[in-house]
Sequence to fold (879 residues):
Amino acid sequence: MKQTVRLSKNVIPIEYDLKIRPDLKNFTFEGVETITLSILKKTKTLTLHSKELEIETAHMSDMWGKISYDEKSETATFTFPENIPAGKNKLTIVFKGILNDKMRGFYRSRYYIDGKEHHMATTQFEATDARRAFPCFDEPAQKAVFHVSLVVPKGKTAISNTLPKSVEEHESGFEVIRFHPTPKMSTYLLAFIVGDFEYIEKKTKTGVQVRVYTTHGKKHQAGFALDCAVKTLEFYEKYFDIKYPLNTLDMIAIPDFQSGAMENWGAVTYRESALLVDENHSSVSNKQWVALVIAHELAHQWFGNLVTMEWWTHLWLNEGFATYIEYLAVDKLFPKWDIWTQFSTNDLGRALHLDALLNTHPIEIPVHHPDEIGEIFDEVSYAKGASVIRMLASYLGEKDFRAGLHHYLKKHSYKNTETLHLWQAFEKVSGKPVAKMMRNWTSKPGYPVVKAEIKNGKLALSQERFFASPISKKKSKDKTIWQVPLHNSSNVQYQSSQKSNFLPVRIFRSLKNPEIGSPSLAKPLKKFILENSYLKVNFGETGFFRTAYSKELLEKLKMPVERKILSPRDRLGVIRDLFALSEAGTIPTTDALEFLSAYKNPARNAYGKAVAGGEDNYTVWLEIALGLARLEQLIVPRQARHLRPTKSNLDKLILDLFSPTMKRLGWSPRKNEMHTDTLLRSLCISRLGRSGHTGIINKARAMFKTGKINPDIRGAVYSVVASSGGMKEYKIFIEKYKKETLHEEKNRIGGVLGDFSDPKILKLTCEFAMSKHVRTQDTVGILSSIGANPEGRDIWLKCIKLNWKILVSRYGDGGHTLARLIKAISGSAEEKHLKSFKEFFATHDAPGAKRAIQQVLERLEGNTLWLKRDGKKIEGFLE
Fold:
């Protein structure tokens, strides 16, 4: 059992009076705070969280405390000569610290204007880094009110969670800015930022002042974010039926930022690419990302800030919810974006992928030390959390779901909760046994695969836990049975080929275990005549599970996929599950490859007349591209040409699949074209170009020479140029990267530097990623592109080993960046990578990435087995 790192429940903070003075020349800060405490029983010692701070004095009334530190538990203890009586007391602490460059705690961020270097001071406290800025009770349940004052040079902008209350003269050249008290909140939501900014502003209908802050010269890129924020805030106030609790909401673009954004109450911080949109140089896909990130952070103002999880074990209550609700808001603001279909791949698909491992974790996982806390900010807490919420929402129906949320937020405002409190709220309004149904979805790892077959005219269903690798399945003795809310399309008779007759009926069935201990879930629906019917289980892809159809049922799904009778979500669900079942060894990979023809060909009726064109939905094609990319990753690079299958044969299949869609879309956007067609064009260009389509490669190279490339296809063109290019192109990219000021464009270039095939260039890319020209927040993205390139894996491994010490010092102190970094090699099916990776991490510590290492090893073993099992069959099919 891990020792607990929780502070004593005997001492409760009520409010903090905090005065901080950052020094942007020497990168230090000093502070003084008075904490009003409620002490429940008399004590001589007080223990608070404190990390990398030098505490000069601590006193209560007229007693001075002796100061001692415990580095391991990140605390400071003050021992007083006499007992402090129970009741209300004030503790005053004088301290100082460094403005670090680790993007955690109170840190400095560097940027350039016209070649001149500037710095700002900013904060990032989630999960456990408020203790790096001031001694505090750094746990989500220790909510308090904060009175912040910042001592800053005159002319600097100071931002905190609330609006300034007063500005007073300080010693010459300085002023003290005092802010209004915050609501009662957790330490991790406090923020203070000092620097040179400009901003634009707007008010919501209910009078909340919304501002977007940028460094000088960038406020023209803030308009889209400001519009989104105002509309999103108005939508949430209506949807939750609870007013936003503050009168101000600031959103600040920070040049150095570890994650995408942080929901500090009233002062949300973002990395520049997640907030700024340049009308001439931003792509619609980045615009979409900005809208989703803003909607996510603003959802937290209620879910997380107003009502906060009791401890990090329940992190998913914050993150799963914000991830679900962000789609709700964006769908409301931009109904033509087809955003819920994209959820099926971007969130549901990603969650199913990670959670298919033995080395996953339950949504609710007991965590203790900051290292473990940082590790759970992953696809399980975010994407699986969001997916099971969506499953529950579709089971309860919109009305009860919304009423349950309102009840939960109202009842627990300014308090802390656990998962059970949410289930109780839904049970109260719906009368359904939510806690019982949801128990295994949140407390157990993994999810089921539901097997569907027809027996004597009846639908027979059974379930077992799904594993991506048969090795994991063998190791596991997991017999969990989940309660699966099952929506399925009923059998539809075909009277004519007109679409209007194909109205799938929703049948709500709960796929429960009829008898305890028996995993068989046979539930007769009605007499099912297979000849003229089809059946889609997990209708609308609302359930968090995979479906394995019998041969007959799968065959019958081809027609509704070809004719697009099924929705895009259902069409992508079928192929996604087929690729996953291939990886798991449940079906041969050739079954998935054979089914692809249903997406390519125009559907024809009995007389050979085309009744529907081929697949036209962006997200369905994205899902197909991801499935094929998994196969592409398995295929060993060129130096081992004798191994099967070969890349050239897979490329032929890709060209065959994607060419008709590219032909339909063309290179230039049409007037008023669908948002998703713009995204699809970019996908087709990169997919075809990287598979050797000479027409696409030549056109991309010609465009690159002129430098005039529409931002929507720029990333795709860069990728094609890099994957087919050499040293000349590499040098142009590097020069562009160094000069570029728009972070989004830097990311576009950085993301393709790993796509070259020349090992010499990939080695240079490694060196460049670690150099001073690349912000530490962006290094991992560039390195990962090398690890994901089959030609680059050996170089990636060498680079990681060589720079491991530096990487750990940069990213190893909490957070999930190291975990993201080491997952880049997960696609390999080469034994040597498995061996090398295993040996290295047997002797090298990876703080906050222990689970990630196990996940990579499990993937590498599974891939090797997959290739051995199916390599020859795949080659036979492709030839």
Remarks:
- The first helix runs from residue 223 to 240.
- The mean pLDDT is 90.
